[in-house]
Amino acid sequence: MSVQQESAAGGTAPAQPGQPGQPGQAGQPGQAGQAGQANPRGSNACCFCWCCCCSCSCIFEEINVEITHPNVVHALCSPKPTLEEVCSWGQSFDKLMCCPAGRNSFRQFLRTEFSEENMLFWLACEEFSKDANKTPVEDRARVIYEDYISILSPKEVSLDSRVRESINRNMQEPNLQTFEDAQLQIYTLMQRDSYPRYMNSQTYKNLLNTLSEQSPEP
């Protein structure tokens, strides 16, 4: 309905020339390059995104977004949508969210409203409920809690007290249903609050116009 050596004598190991595949070795300034390192595609990327400024079919690239679950990054990547798909997003929020390209475009809009964490939380919950046989539930639940539920997190989502208290209790022995109520609440929030604004936004209109212009004449 989810992404981090000192020498034995105690000093910082000198930079090793000729080893470009080990970022941060030279001085290791807080290892700050892990979350915000340059896009590996560099200048080869053909555009910022497909949604409003070009017709190429490149995929979404992370732009200053810190995502802790690699599957969430994968879920946000999508090919360029078709005109038919984009038109269907206006029929219902469910159709928008069922389409990878729709989620991607909607997420970019949420970023402009400073509420991107809602989409990231929803995606993290989707992956959480599907990865039952991989990383232990407790570990994955803790990551989601610290990223989106904790009041100390800069990406904390807005939940009512009942749902928040339920999660706090369940975190003692988390299971695959721990975040179900919270995920539904955030989904409903996006549907009622952000979705109508997205449909009237330039983000959506530009994408629709671009694809309409590219469509062959009947």
How much of the residues is beta strand, in percent?
Answer: under 5%
Q: Give the overall shape, derived from the CA principal axes.
A: elongated
In N-to-C order, the SSE pattern is HHHHHHHHHH
Give helix % range.
40-55%
Number of helical regions: 10
Q: For the CA atoms, what is the radius of gyration?
A: 20 Å
Derived structural class: mainly alpha
Q: Would you tell me the overall average pLDDT?
A: 75
Q: Describe the main β-sheet briefly.
A: none
How far is it from the N-terminal to the C-terminal residue, by CA?
A: 36 Å
For the secondary structure, the number of strands is: 0
Give the low-confidence spans.
Answer: 2-76
Keywords: Signal transduction inhibitor
Protein name: RGS domain-containing protein
InterPro entries: RGS (IPR016137), RGS_sf (IPR036305), RGS_subdomain_2 (IPR044926)
Organism: Cyclopterus lumpus (Lumpsucker)
Throw out a few tags for this protein:
disordered N terminus; 10 helices; mainly alpha; signal transduction inhibitor; 218 residues; RGS_sf; RGS; RGS_subdomain_2; elongated
Overview of this structure, please?
Residues 1-35 are annotated as: Disordered. Residues 92-208 form the RGS domain. Keywords: Signal transduction inhibitor. InterPro entries: RGS (IPR016137), RGS_sf (IPR036305), RGS_subdomain_2 (IPR044926). This protein is an all-alpha fold and 218 residues long. Helices cover 49% and strands 0% of the residues. The chain has helices spanning 33-36, 70-76, 83-88, 93-98, 100-112, 116-130, 137-149, 161-170, 180-199, 202-214. Residues 2-76 have low confidence and may be disordered.
